[in-house]
Structures are given as structure tokens and as C-alpha cells.
Amino acid sequence: MTRKQKDIVIGMILGDAYLQKTGKQNARLRLEQGISQRNYLEWKVEQLQNYFQSKIKVLERNNPIWNKTYQYVRIQSTASPDFGKLQNIFYNNSQKIIPKTITTIFKNPLSLAVWFMDDGYYYQRDKIAYLYIPNFDKESMKYLLETLKHNFSLLPILKKKKRGSVLIFSVIETQKLISLIGKHIILSMRYKLPLDPVSTDRKSHNATSSEIVI
Questions:
Q1: What is the pTM of this model?
Q2: Which domains does the chain have, with CATH numbers?
Q3: Residue range 44-72: average pLDDT?
């Protein structure tokens, strides 16, 4: 695994990716995106093409909260000791955690950009950014916030939600965040940045705070 690939995978793990253990040393990477973000999934696969042999599948899932069925795309990598090492770092049994060593491995703005493309949102009206995260344990959250401060000079506010948590970036912190990740955001995901000529999704820009989608 190249350094760039590892930085991308770290961002994926902080975001939506799942590492499934397949034996003592190996694990496989499972990636899913909404059907409208297929281009983003294809970019991920392209960056890690030496780990994928299968094709992207289009699947359906029912959301019991909204009682709606929606399509999504999924792909799984081959089993690899490279993913096995990361699974041992970022999981306690099957529970995803933030390891104590996160400050030493989460240093590249590219990782931050991938995480933002997975779980971030820019709210145009207030000019602030959000990063949605699972309800990690207290230690995990402590390590994550310390790393954002130490490695990226970012000071978001943590707010607990029913089904997860969110990191809220003030206007100034959002400007710092965008300056770090902007050049790494791929074209199809630039709707998550402040409006610019290459924006691809005006509807997302006009969402209200109660309609935020990532």
C-alpha cells in the first residue's frame, strides 16, 4: 500500500468505510455510497484498484424511518494484510474506535478531505461546515479532537445527536478547513464546498438545516 493509498483509506475509515476481519491477519474493505454518488465510489476504487477484483453492485435498501426504498452502490475489496493491520488499529472487536495513535497516522489533508467527502456538509447560509460521526466512546472523541487541533489547527465543537454526533466548524474554522481540503475534493463532490463555478449540485446548496444530506 502506497502512502497516498493509506492516507485515502484512513479518511475512508473515519468516514463510511467498513473493515471486515477475515482471519487473524487479513481484512477486506467494504465501500458503499448513495446511487447519486457513484462517481465518488468509482474514484475510490480507482485509487485502490490493486485491491479490487469485483465490480460495483447496485443494491436496494429500505429506510424504516422514512418508509422508503432507495438504491445504493457497494463494492468489497479482496482480503489483504494491509487492511488487516488497519482493522486491528481502528476496531475493538467489531466496534470502530479512534486509536490512541491517531495523531501519528492522521496527518495528511488528503485524509481529512476524504472524510469530509464521506460525512461532511457545508451550510451555505451560515457559511459553516459539519462533519457527522458515529457515537464514539469518550476516549475516541478525545483523541480525534486532539488530533484535529494538533495536526490541522482545527477547533470544531462536538455536539451529540440521537443517532451519532457532529463536529461543527465556526465560520473561521470552516475557512481553515476548506483551505486545507479544497484542492483534494474531486469534481463530483465539490457541491460540498462553498459555491463556485464548478459546483455540481445546486439543490444541495439550498438545503435548509433540517434537510441536510451528506
A1: 0.86
A2: 3-92 (3.10.28.10), 105-211 (3.10.28.10)
A3: 86
